[in-house]
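Appendix B, Record 12. Input sequence as logged:
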Amino acid sequence: MNNKNIKIGNTLVGQAQQCYMVAEIGINHNGSLDTAKKLIDVAVDSGCDAVKFQKRTIEIVYSKEELSRPRESPFGVTNGDLKKGLEFDLEEYSAINKYCKEKEITWFASCWDEASVDFIEQFDPPCYKIASASLTDDNLLKHHRKYGKPIILSTGMSSMQEIEHAVAVLGTDDLIILHSTSTYPSDLEELNLRVITTLKKKFPSPIGYSGHEVGLHTSLAAVVLGGCMLERHITLDRSLWGSDHSASVEPHGLQKLVRDIRVCERALGNGVKQVYDSEIPIRQKLRRI
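Logged structural output:
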């Protein structure tokens, strides 16, 4: 049974709790602190609970060959130019930390290497996210646990055997597991949202969903299926330059998604069949016996 509640900051995430809404900024700031702040504003205005960034130590995560690979971008002509151009440093993350406190919204990051975990820890985040790409990196999983923070584990491009192994490494205490499909954008036929139910039966941890599809309806369905956390990439404009924008939600869409999820949560109820006081006059009027 998924009866655990995990505390992120001052908010409980889990069964019978309001779905925890995470706006994934990731690298959609395109290297601009000003854009990052605008995206934080979008998340706040939409009623999200948190925003999430990504942190990498470029020289650790990518090989020299990969960094030298030709790739045209606003930052230069190699893949290394692009990766370095998208990476925020201490000054920029300090500004993000300050801005999120001013806006009263939680922020955290997915860290792709041990040094990045150590870097983000100086801001005392309430939790850490482990990206799908890092699910099989046992040393990185163990390093996250070093700081005793709740862990959010994404499971895209992973087999059930790999997920089971990662959960065994991390343990189920303070662990939230997100079903995900790691294509950008994802095809509807490959979302397989019923895996949320499968994971709920298999693990005692709260189960959520990290979506990369176009549209909003499927994310709403993920919550109705029992997802206790929803993460979607956000953008100011889906036509902007960058690999993640096409699989992201624009401001108006994010407002609509949060609104509709809150409506559905009110309608789902507690599952106990009852006769409401408002029904009694109708019953008296219409029933013969």
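The first helix runs from residue 33 to 46.
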